[in-house]
Amino acid sequence: MHNIALIPGDGTGPEVTAEALKVLEAAAQVGGFTYDTTTLDFGGERYLRTGETLPDGAIDDLRQFDAIFLGAIGHPEVLPGILEKNILLRIRFELDQYINLRPVKLYPNVETPLAGKGPEDIDFIIVRENTEGIYTGMGGVQYAGTPNEVSTQIHCTTYHGASRCVRYAFELTRARARTNQLHLVAKTNVLTYVHGTWWRAFNEIGDADFPDITRDYAHVDAATMWMVKNPEWFDVVVTENLFGDIITDLGAMIQGGMGIAAGGNVNPEGVSMFEPIGGSAPKYTGQGVINPLAAINAMQMLLDDIGEHAAAQRVESAVVKALESGRFESMSAGRMGMSTSEAGDFVASLV
Ligand code: IPM
Ligand code: MN
Question: Does pTM top 0.85 for this prediction?
Answer without folding.
Answer: yes
